[in-house]
Design a protein that fits this description.
By secondary structure, the chain is an all-alpha fold. It has three helices and no strands. It is flat, with a radius of gyration of 19 Å. The two termini are 17 Å apart.
């Protein structure tokens, strides 16, 4: 069951993300942070999880073993 559809924004190739975020905030859809997050401190406290294998390999294996 799909939960999202990835599609271009009105066919625009370049997006002004700052303007887009400000527009979403004005409409009450998001709330922007008061200050820029310290990504180094965040990543030091919450290092990314490393997984074995990869998505492509797992998908190919699932296709090979599928009953379809």
């Amino acid at each position: 069951m799909p939960v999202a559809q990835l599609a271009p924004l009105n066919g625009v190739e370049e997006v002004d993300w700052d303007a887009r975020m400000e527009s979403l905030e004005r409409r009450g859809l998001i709330r922007l942070p008061k200050k820029k997050p310290d990504m180094k401190a965040f990543l030091d406290a919450h290092p990314p999880v490393e997984f074995e294998g990869g998505v492509l390999e797992d998908l190919l294996e699932e296709l090979r073993t599928s009953d379809r």
